[in-house]
Amino acid sequence: MFDTLLVMGTGSGALAELEAAVDALLAETPCHESGAHLHADVISLQRIRAKLGVLAAAILSEWDHSLVWAADGSRSAASRLARDTHSSVRCAKQELRRARQLCHLPVTRAAVTAGDLSLEHLDLLGSACTPERAELFAEHEATLVDQCTVLAYADAVRLVQYWCQRADDVLNMPVKERRAAKAAFYASSSLDGMVVLNGQLDPIGGAIVTEALRRIEHELYLADLKTGTRRTAAQRRAQALVEMAHRSQAAPPDGRMPKPLFTVVVGDRTAQQLCELANGTVIRPSELVEYFDAAMLETVLFDGPSTVLSVSRRRSFTGAIRRAIEVRDRRCQHPSGCDEPAARCDVDHIKPYRLGGVTSQFNGRLLCSTHNRHANKRDEDPPVPDERIVTRLDEFRARIRWKEAKTLGIAPAHWPPGAEIAEFG
Fold first, then answer.
1. 239 with 272, same domain?
2. pLDDT digits (tens, 9 = 90+) for 108-151
3. pTM of the full predicted structure?
4. Buried-most residue among 19, 68, 118, 178 (CB within 10 A)?
5. Domain end: 226, 250, 274, which one?
6. CA dist., res. 301 & res. 310, Å (int)
7. Strands, E assignment, 181-238
8. pLDDT at residue 205 greater than cutoff 70
């Protein structure tokens, strides 16, 4: 029925039949023979929801362009849609944005209706297809869709960020200036005297602030454990922000910087086009220039998707194994697709140490506490990657290449981006 609606439209009464079928399902008492049947129904309903979202966007696009919404004097399509659907204007604007992008995303639309991608992918790729990039996006949409179908959503976001960065380079877009113009911060008081903060920062500035907040919030968490204090993570972050202000007043202007303010992941040789913050945000090498001499950043050099060549600001590679694994894996590596971030994960041996497993980056992985500390949740006999010997000479040469890259700039990126980015998951 959904496929018929997508192809023929809704004038044949198929929409009324669909509504009747949904009403009939709602009237039934859910009953499933097994957990497998229940799981299958959950996934099937999500795919149907995605198809219906595409259908709704197509019809909404026609409604928007025909100006039907203006017949009663509504000031905008969003306000009319929000009023008649009892939703917020914000939600209505999001629906209209998707509807207006749909005609520019034929390959993505087909992938969503086929169940290969989600509505989130539709919105993600739609955000990349700006008027300035529309022509390039039309050329590369099929490549992007092919890669997104085999990636976790978080990795698809990184892939699209790389594509946007390279497209903007091709188009000579003033990205740095545009980001600087968008940066803003506001502080206001509520009626009861609380201070409300709101704003946005460029990727590197944001990484500096969030990393400092994370460190102090973790200190507060450990202190709360000792004292038995019960606070949410959000409450600790609020206190951490105040603590940041206290520490900035106490620190001398020329005081020693104890830790790097943020981490950048860069590539060497086979991963030469890799340049992003540890949280996965894609940046340009040129954006790092002002931080090179200030010793404010920690660099992690990769060669390929799993081999760390060098971690800066560490006495030896052996002492940096844990940090290398955290930055490489970024999230829990359990095969279920767990997305618990590195900050809340343990680093553990793949082949247990008691069974002869070595302590190296290749035999280590991130696992969240649930998947690491509960035997019934751990995966059995996970594969151990091939060991690659990283010598002091390898590390020294990699550092030299990175030092030269800082001066000369990283080589032009492959175009369009493909598997060489997608493999870094």
1. no
2. 999 999 999 999 999 999 999 999 999 999 999 999 999 999 98
3. 0.65
4. 118
5. 250
6. 5
7. 184-189, 195-200
8. yes
